[in-house]
Design a protein that fits this description.
about 200 residues; mainly beta
């Protein structure tokens, strides 16, 4: 399993985040982009416009405010739309700035993570990243994973950047494992997010 770097802010991402914090705005996490291009060493100058080598996977992204300086993000992925095997080198976190894509940060690896085509091996997995900013006090955070936003004020919830991968071995367990892997549960026929409030 590949080891990805802690997320590195891009110049355009840092500029947008500073403006949002200064104006008490909303950070809208739109999606994650996956790339087969190795951007190790050039992360800060990368932009949404120059992010190349993208391959199509089905992603969702949730976000949470952990304390006054940390935003946690979790990217959930499945390969149901992937037609050919790919090597994952770069994960980019995309913000929505009034309809414009902005590459907030990237996480890279020099040894790629192989992502198989769906027909060979249906999988679901997630990547979790902690983003440190100057202040989260006056901003709102919105994720695109079913509109889910959650907040934890307890610093004991904060961990270093971690990566979790879930493999689905056969179709018979797909739905149950997908629900569990996403931290979801079914309550009275409704799909709900499961979390611990501290």
């Amino acid at each position: 399993m590949a080891v990805f770097s802690n997320p590195i802010f891009t110049e355009e991402g840092r500029t947008l985040m500073a403006d949002i914090i200064a104006n008490q705005g909303t950070v809208v996490f739109k999606e994650a982009w996956f790339s087969s291009t190795n951007y190790v060493g050039s992360e800060e100058t990368l932009t949404a416009a120059t992010f190349a080598g993208k391959f199509l996977v089905d992603t969702g992204i949730s976000a949470s405010v952990y304390n006054n300086t940390v935003i946690g993000t979790e990217v959930t992925v499945n390969n149901s739309t992937l037609a050919t095997d790919q090597n994952l080198y770069t994960i980019g976190i995309i913000l929505d700035d009034n309809g414009t894509d902005v590459l907030l940060c990237v996480s890279t690896t020099s040894s790629p993570e192989p992502i198989p085509a769906f027909v060979d091996n249906p999988i679901i997995f997630s990547y979790r990243f902690m983003l440190t900013v100057s202040s989260t006090q006056n901003i709102q955070v919105v994720g695109s994973l079913a509109g889910v936003v959650y907040k934890s004020d307890g610093e004991d919830s904060l961990t270093s950047q971690s990566t979790t991968r879930y493999l689905v071995a056969n179709q018979g367990r797909v739905l149950k494992e997908i629900i569990d892997a996403l931290g979801l549960s079914v309550v009275n026929g409704e799909l709900c997010i499961t979390y611990n409030q501290t």
